[in-house]
Amino acid sequence: MKKRKWVVTITILAVFCIVAVIYKQCQKDTKSSMTGAPAKVQKRNILNVNGLIISPQNLTDGITMVGSLLPDEEVNLTFETSGKIVDIYFKEGSMVKKGQLLAKVNDKTLQAQLSRYQAQLKLAKDRVYRQSALLEKDAVSKEAYEQATTELATLEADIEIVRSNIALTELRAPFDGKIGIRNVSEGAYASPNVEIARLTKVSPLKIEMHVPERYADQVKPGTRLSFNVEGHTESLQAEVYAVESKVDTETRTMLVRALYPNKDASLQPGRFVTAHIQMQDITGAIAIPTEAIVPEMGVDKVFLYRGGKAHSVAVKTGMRTDALIHIIEGLEMGDTIITSGTLQLREALPVKLDHIK
After folding, report:
1. pLDDT by residue (tens digit) across 299-334?
2. N or C: more exposed end of the chain, with fewer CB within 10 A?
3. pTM
4. In this model, does residue 200 exceed pLDDT 90?
5. Which residues make Cβ contacts (< 8 Å) with residue 32, sequence separation at least 6?
6. Domain ranges of the chain
7. Who's near 76: CB < 8 A, 6+ residues apart?
């Protein structure tokens, strides 16, 4: 019995010693943790960032768009009547003048009718002359005279109809331009549905493009633009001459057309172009990278570097370019703004500048 009590006593003392050692070690760890924590936390809370010292910038606001070259005028040439093509007078790919005869349909029947009417015309005029002389002498009734004049007027009208029908057998150029590949040959049967060739006016050329709606009020007739075409190293100049009356509700753009003289006919319709319209130039502006802006509840903010800490300021922005944004209010020349890690920044957060421009 005594031996058992002795074992229990020794076990209790051993447990007590182990608990005391563990308690002492915990106190040591706690003290060590309390003394070392501020330095570690402080070190962990310092954010490494990049900075930018604000200096005057020159900004150019402009629109870059893609578009297409269109002919000033273009038409598919067809006859207004039907018949056999007897002559083709144009050369494919050549320049033609307005009114130039391009092709002819057989008109022999119409020419024969015209000859008959013209032969009758002289007799009709002589009859009217004689009836007029007799009427003055009361040798013929007024009714006979009027009948003669009516026959003359009818004959003249028939002649005009035949001449008009003959004109329909002639295909003439409606404007100056370049004629394309012909689709028929002499001897073919032509009708209003048969396309003879295509006539295109290539000087001047139109440039068709779509302008974003935010520039709808700024692009007007007379606005100058520059454009580039593949294969041409230099930039070419054009001028806006027409603007659509409304903004397209699907694309949120506005259709615009400009005119390029193309005097040497070096450009062809249908080609792809890249156009640029310069809206305004701002000198001595405060411009910062767009990534430095932090939107917060509808307000644009920028973090400044002051005394090793980040401080936020509200700014008012203006025009934007591909990489920069114009700051109208909120910043001054010489301010150092933080350009990286903006999503992690908080007011008065300690920061360290790794790189500064």
Report:
1. 899 999 998 999 999 999 887 777 788 888 889 999
2. N
3. 0.63
4. yes
5. none
6. 47-62+284-356, 79-106+169-195, 107-159, 202-280
7. 195, 197, 198
**Amino acid present at 271:** R
Give residue 255's identity as a one-letter amino acid code. Answer: L
d(CA 344, CA 46) in angstroms, rounded, equals 11
Q: How far apart are the first and last CA of the chain?
A: 87
Residue type for 202, please?
V
* C-beta neighbour count of 151 within 10 angstroms: 15
Fold of the domain spanning 47-62+284-356:
2.40.420
Domain 202-280 is of which CATH architecture?
A: Beta Barrel (2.40)
The strand order across the sheet containing 324-329 reads 287-289, 324-329, 316-320
CA angle 176, 271, 246 (to 5 degrees): 85
Instruction: For the domain made up of 79-106+169-195, give the CATH fold.
Output: OB fold (Dihydrolipoamide Acetyltransferase, E2P) (2.40.50)
C-alpha 238: how far from chain center: 14
Eight-class DSSP state of 142: H
Q: What values do phi and psi take at 34, rounded to 5?
A: -70, -35
